[in-house]
UniProtKB/TrEMBL annotation:
Entry similarity comment: Belongs to the short-chain dehydrogenases/reductases (SDR) family.
The protein's name: SDR family oxidoreductase
Matching SUPFAM superfamilies: NAD(P)-binding Rossmann-fold domains
A Pfam family that the UniProt record links to this protein: adh_short
Gene Ontology MF term list: oxidoreductase activity
Keywords: Oxidoreductase
Presence of the UniProt keyword Oxidoreductase in the record: yes
Length: 267
């Protein structure tokens, strides 16, 4: 059960290192109790002990591999049944290296399971529970490659575009329920994801690489400001607003009863 002064419990996936571990620390500092999910039990335990000591919050660890359906179902059930959970951070994810044509299909399937399927199932479970309670926050970690897929490999970029689209659609579905949705689109962030996926990040210009702590702090500031989409490195928010406005201009013409004139035969 959450402690008396707690704003509730935050469930954080991929919580044993990197962005997830930093989010856990920042959320604990805000008074959240924590349910930390990751594959590495030892690192989870170390992280939990530090957070209990430093912030005096309740921290539970739950080892799970979200590429495995049974483990996803375990976390999903917890989201549906535990009314103390008020925030879901869908952070767990993996990158891929190389061209789609040369990729290991089994590795790509695991990426999709983690980056797409698990995110969807957990967001669905959280949305159900939070809607019933009339409050809650769902944060999905996407990536700027969702907006610029040509700059990275196909499967990872597509998976993050899915997360962005899911977040936008889910936000529309949850309008008026009291549930908040945020998609965070980091650029290159200094974490272990690169070496784990076999990508050499040493050649990326230093001015493009953000420290994970700064990224998380910016993302939480965006959440506090009520943003649906937070792009931590974007200097001018009006550029994103213009992008959204251009998309809405397309809207009335995306589905019509006849094909555009340029596609009709000229006799």
């Amino acid at each position: 059960m959450s402690s008396a002064k707690s704003p509730g419990t935050a469930l954080v996936t991929g919580a044993s290192s990197g962005i997830g571990a930093i989010y856990a620390e920042r959320l604990a500092a805000r008074g959240f109790d924590l349910l930390l999910v990751a594959r590495d039990q030892q690192r989870l335990d170390v992280t939990a002990n530090i957070l209990r000591k430093d912030h005096g919050v309740q921290v539970e660890v739950l080892r799970a591999d979200l590429t495995q359906k049974d483990d996803v179902l375990k976390i999903e059930q917890r989201l549906r049944s535990d009314s103390n959970i008020t925030l879901l951070l869908n952070n767990a994810g993996v990158a891929a290296n190389g061209l789609l044509a040369n990729a290991d299909p089994d590795q790509l399937e695991q990426l999709i399971q983690l980056n797409v399927t698990a995110v969807t199932r957990l967001a669905s479970a959280a949305a159900a529970g939070f809607t019933k309670a009339g409050r809650g926050t769902i944060i999905n970690i996407a990536s700027v490659v969702a907006l610029f897929p040509e700059r990275f490999n196909a499967t990872y970029s597509a998976s993050k575009a899915y997360v962005l689209s899911l977040s936008q659609s889910l936000n529309a579905e949850l309008e008026g329920t009291g549930v908040k949705v945020q998609a965070v689109l980091p650029g290159v962030t200094r974490t272990e994801i690169w070496e784990r996926s076999g990508i050499d990040a040493s050649g990326i210009p230093a001015e493009m690489v953000m420290e994970a702590g700064e990224m998380v702090d910016a993302a939480l500031a965006g959440l506090d400001q009520g943003e649906l989409i937070t792009i931590p490195s974007l200097p001018d928010a009006s550029e994103w607003q213009a992008f959204v406005a251009a998309r809405h201009v397309l809207g009335p013409n995306l589905s019509r009863s006849s094909a555009a004139q340029r596609y009709k035969s000229v006799i």
